[in-house]
Predict the 3D structure of the following.
Amino acid sequence: MPFRLIPELESHLDTDTEHTARLFKSSLFDTMKVKIKLSAKAVKELHASVLKHDGYNFKVPGPFPGCIATIFSRPSEQIVYIEAGPKFLTGQNVVGIEDAHQLASEIITSALVRAGLSISQALAQRVEEGAYELLRADFVAHCDCGSPGRLHAVMLALRHLAVGTARDVSFYGVDTLYIGQHSRRKSLKIYNKGSELSIRPIPEGVPHRTQLTSKAQSLLRFEFVLRAEELKRLGLSDPKALTSEIVRDLIQRQFDFVTRAGGLIPDLALASNLSRACQAKLRAWVLGDTSAFAGSPTTLASNRRQVLATTGIDVASPIDAKTQRLAVMAVRDVLRDGVGFKPRPKLWEQLKKHAEAHDQRVPRE
């Protein structure tokens, strides 16, 4: 039988009415992975260093404890792979920039310098020109739900909607949802940023640590991961090609997908517009008959499309029509008000300078 309406979801959405006041906006590129060619001398220096490593993975400590970059390098090859994000450079990833090339080049330069390698003029120029390949790019947009209670309610709504909307859906506790986690191309991770920071807090010494942690308590974080196969398919392996406009459009499509944008808000009153046969099946489904729309895959798909287009109700979903209506309304409203693309380049530069001036590098053994 379809799930019943969740009282907790309804109560939070009814009581948290001041959620639009002074919402926090933040969007940024997060984890980046690049492939770049180094000189034979630089590779030799890397393998002669005292960096901690696991096989060919070298761990490069950033200015703050626990914030590292990874360099994968084989001693016989000049191609290396570098992976890190804003945490490596500033100790946090709540705010940042939407310039993929700038972030990737800063990560490359900082990782190599902190690994003890000398940066030749030729290498510096190649990095500046974008002569490296993007293998992964994570783009983040935050949704300020206005309060922790409303955030929890929206997370519940998203969990229920995702089950009927997406195929590869994974849940981790009550605060994390993945769509496409096992895809080699792209994935979307949605989670409670405040809960994450309670487990892995921003390190001491990071400017605005208290304010950023406080803001995060009502932030729902959307991390859209583009992997090498998808970047190549889209022609975005060139870091200068992955512009802010392109990536915003890509993640907006994800928002539209999870909120069923463009479709109707589920409403049983619209069932009268269906054919008599479909009306009868829908009545049976509402009463708990999960086999009401049973039939060949083609017939099932056709009936599902007809009911969804006419009433907004997804009969392939495990949740009832009333809960679908509440979930769609909740998610659409909160994402409409709470999501705002806003990079913070000035603050980013301040955070970088502070990290460089107050280097708390993890001691190397």
